[in-house]
Amino acid sequence: MFEAHFQSFDDQAARGDSAPRVAALRAELARRRLDGFVVPRADRYQNEYVPPCAARLAFISGFSGSAGVAIVLADRAVLFVDGRYQLQVKDEVDGAIFTIEHLVERPPPAWIEANLQAGQRLGYSPWLHTVGGAERLAKACAAAGASLVPVDDNPIDAIWTARPPPPLGAVVVHELKYAGEGSPQKVARVRAEMQKVKADALAVPDPQAVCWLLNIRGSDILHTPVVLAAALVAKDGRPALYVDARQLGDGIRARLQELADLRAPAAFDRDLAALGADKRTVLLDPASCPQAIARLVGEAGGKILRGADPIAAMKAVKNAVEIAGARAAHARDGAALTRFLAWFDGQAPSGRLTEIDAVEALESFRRDSGLLKDVSFPTIAGAGPNGAIVHYRVTRKSNRRIASGEIFLLDSGGQYLDGTTDVTRTVAVGTPNAPEVRQKFTLVLKGHIAIARAVFPDGTSGAQLDSLARQFLWRAGLDFDHGTGHGVGSYLSVHEGPARIAKLGTTPLMRGMILSNEPGYYRAGAYGIRTENLVLVVEPPAVADAEKPLNAFETLTLAPIDRRLIEPTMLDDEEIAWLDAYHARVRTVLTPLVDAPTRAWLEAATAPCSPSS
Questions:
Q1: Which residues are 420's β-sheet partners?
Q2: What is the pLDDT of residues 368-410, one digit of tens each?
Q3: Within a 10 A sphere around the Cβ of 521, how many other Cβ atoms?
Q4: Fewer CB within a 10 Å sphere, N or C end of the chain?
């Protein structure tokens, strides 16, 4: 009945291949007189999601998650993953080859300091580590009496005989009716920030920043509409865009030549070195810029000016056109998700549906609008115990039949020209019969509502809000091992910095930023719960006698929250009022956008909640 166009269900794990590959890497390291090598989940652009040709961590270890680091020594190997992947990694990685460490609780520098021997040489690729990250590795090596050795040609590439070619997706214009601001105006704003810190040039190695700055998009990475390109912005003259000419059609080439000098990607290294030779001051963000850029400029005699990437902050604050687009995209996406939920509610209790069936159906409902460009990430569709795997990706091998009486976690999103969506709903299959699940679901919901209702002064960071989402779980001795929220782009990455709602989210939240609100709870081997909406930072209603400017959140996502999983007696009057108002808004906006059978289902799904319901 349905099929997926934008995602596959192939098993990408390479668990059985890791032993010979690690052996080959060790031989290559010995040939180069290196005692070990650091393998991050990164490409030269520091992308979260990487093209197949840059999936070196997956190649060597079998781990397919979006965050991780491996260290391979002659006699042992270790893989670091964060809390989202603690279950997944056990299925994908051979524990006889790699020991598993927590990326946050015991990060690579701590392991290096404790495990490297004096005199050992640990190799790394400067393009695959940020300036700050490389410095932390070097400090740890020095503490162990070892040395960190830069390697220009990655040794994994030397043993990867069937390495995929680099992507060459076509570059397209992101029209002003979606971008809301022209590229010349954006460049002028960037230069104004450069002038404040007296920078001669800004290195822009982040494809998201490049695409935002020049109002272009691409298809070089699955589900993230970027072109793998870099840029340089000088304090005067035209910016330079470093992009493969084969990706430029005649129309886009002519438009881009009006905005920037077009250069081959290989010229980026030469131009960085030339800036250094001219003794120029180059601004770069040590938290996001590859260390190779600092080396190219610094070793040629230039000055490195460390500072926050001005484009990241500008891109995070959406303009009026982008905000209007986000609202439209979420209404469209919410209608598709609601049609799916109504369909699922009728089909799933039969026991005939599988996780893949659900993924294919949801994507089909989204495609019906005719405006879906892609999904914003591979849909997470976890039935029963698979829901406890935070970033679970269903494959034909793992595909599980959805059983009546259990719960189903569905985390998905769409890419539209006017906005990017990301929404999670945990739903009952048939009639839920476990009071424990209702209790946990309601604790998560209370945290979600606390974030949604938050009012906070200017300058408040995501770290200051994060505990609002956890407080009810904490009181029950529970928690979740991921952030409460991440930034979201405007037809760009579904995970966008620098702002986030998390324990380490230090960036102040500003009006116009879009973030997720997604607390959860996961019981390994049993079930997972997550409720996620995207929220927009806005001005709140006037507060009498307020002594500081205040901010609040507007919820953008529109889809019912499963009332069957709520224990109403655990909600206070204000929480019930928020839920009822949210559902009333969902009903009002979506009713005209869905078919008659869905409207009837939606009416019941968004009925008021009360302690007796």
A1: 415
A2: 999 999 999 999 999 999 999 998 999 999 999 999 999 999 9
A3: 22
A4: N
> What does pTM read for this prediction?
0.94
**Cα–Cα distance between 513 and 487 in angstroms, integer?**
7
Using CA atoms, how far apart are residues 2 and 364, in angstroms rounded to an integer?
6
Residues sharing a CB contact under 8 Å with residue 577, sequence separation 6 or more, in sequence order:
none
CB atoms within 10 A of CB 600: 12
Number of other CB atoms surrounding residue 555 within 10 Å: 19
The answer to whether 109 and 134 have CB atoms below 8 angstroms apart is no
Number of domains in the chain: 3
Residue 474 burial (CB count, 10 A)? 12
Write out pLDDT tens, residues 185-209.
999 999 999 999 999 999 999 999 9
Same domain? For 502 and 535 the reply is yes
In a domain, 496, yes or no: yes
Q: How many CB atoms lie within 10 A of CB 352?
A: 10
| Cβ contact 512:317 at 8 Å | yes
Contact, 193 vs 310, CB < 8 A? yes
Tell me the β-bridge partners of 71.
Answer: 38, 78
Ramachandran angles phi, psi of 25, nearest 5°: -65, -40
The string of pLDDT tens digits covering residues 230-276 is: 999 999 999 999 999 999 998 999 999 999 999 999 999 999 999 99
Does an H or E element contain 496, and which? strand 496-501
Are 530 and 409 in contact by the 8 Å Cβ rule? The answer is: yes
- For 100, phi then psi, to 5°, come to -110, 130
Strand partners, 423: 412
Q: Which of 167, 155, 178, 180 is nearest to 59 (CA)?
A: 155
CB 448 within 8 A of CB 520: no
The answer, yes or no, to whether residue 11 has pLDDT greater than 90, is no
How far is the C-alpha of 515 from the C-alpha of 538, rounded, in Å? Answer: 12
Average pLDDT over residues 18-39: 96
Domain finish residue from 93, 128, 159: 159
Rounded CA separation 392/394 (Å): 6
Say yes or no: 467 and 506 in one domain: yes
Q: How is 411-448 classified by DSSP, letter by letter?
A: EE-EEETTEE--EEEEEESSS---HHHHHHHHHHHHHH
Smallest CA-to-CA distance from 443 within 492, 394, 395, 476 is with 476
Token pair recorded at residue 58: 């997956």
Question: Which structural domain, as residue segments, surrounds residue 54?
Answer: 15-159
- Give CA–CA dist 417/217, Å, rounded: 10
Q: What is the mean pLDDT of the chain?
A: 95
